[in-house]
Amino acid sequence: xxxxxxxxxxxxxxxxxxxxxxxxxxxxxxxxxxxxxxxxxxxxxxxxxxxxxxxxxxxxxxxxxxxxxxxxxxxxxxxxxxxxxxxxxxxxxxxxxxxxxxxxxxxxxxxxxxxxxxxxxxxxxxxxxxxxxxxxxxxxxxxxxxxxxxxxxxxxxxxxxxxxxxxxxxxxxxxxxxxxxxxxxxxxxxxxxxxxxxxxxxxxxxxxxxxxxxxxxxxxxxxxxxxxxxxxxxxxxxxxxxxxxxxxxxxxxxxxxxxxxxxxxxxxxxxxxxxxxxxxxxxxxxxxxxxxxxxxxxxxxxxxxxxxxxxxxxxxxxxxxxxxxxxxxxxxxxxxxxxxxxxxxxxxxxxxxxxxxxxxxxxxxxxxxxxxxxxxxxxxxxxxxxxxxxxxxxxxxxxxxxxxxxxxxxxxxxxxxxxxxxxxxxxxxxxxxxxxxxxxxxxxxxxxxxxxxx
Length: 454
What we know:
α7 packs across α9 and α15 packs across α16. It is built from 17 helices and 16 strands. By secondary structure, it is of the alpha/beta class.
């Protein structure tokens, strides 16, 4: 009876799961060629996918949850998906070059999603981009609510001005990453000091920074640099995004499962520097920690010991390492100053030699990973081509050897023939008494005829 009950329970769970999946799919529309003409009537969040794409299959259940959640909260954004291989002309019009590609389409505008493929992050992106480009903050209560809800956001304070036009232009480009607000001077918290108006501020890390055109350059570049919190948990995707900021990234490479003093102290040191020296370093440095050294080893083409500190220049693939262990925040600050004044030598880079080294390293890493994951597959993928090449080389070598022996045999036969011509000539002068050899018997009358003709 017990096995039957377990089987019935499993069937019931499977049925509920399938019904749940079908229910979620009901809120994601399958789009076809008619979407091109009808899309401007609504705001659409669309997943452009390929049926054979593994990442697309992994995204599908998450995308179904996004559709259900957007429906439940009453969002005006409609969620759909389109087979980009079946409707390639429409996909190409929207600039789809890889799978999956997530875009929010609002009127004539199309915004690319480049964040983590999680339900909450995708929904946050849809809310941010589908709303107003610049959101007004009419009261201090609303300002406090925004501060509690968002880790990083930008605020324009003041009236109409050329700076506001630049702010709107920057927001139209960078709304995919962060929020943009506007407020009057009365709404801004009292602890905020503004030397002049208009002004643009970024609120993050429980403090604020004011844009200075003289020190910070263009407004768009400044917003791009300041859209991250000062201390982050690093991964490969985030390091790629930080590459556009032009900042150096100071990372504590640790093992988060290791609770020893060395690992916890190094993380605390980086957090202390990011917090206490924020005003001094926030324009040039980004701080954080990374769990494990696998990604860093691939990036640096080297084996780093854990725990350690590495400073990356993600814009040109240079990095800096300290020749001793960082014990205190003062050690880290001294290391940063040494980098800024050029006393610490940069390693790596994007020179031709480093690029060649990268090609060799990537090829080696690929081969090793294939053999580790599937030795038989590795033997087949690399052994078969090597075997074919070996056979071809052996065939070419033996063909050359055979050709040489044929030429040698030809020379021997030719020498024998030339050696026989002398006695045959003396036999022709003596006439038929000597008797010509059978090989040239038919040639004697011809030679005689030629003599008579002469």
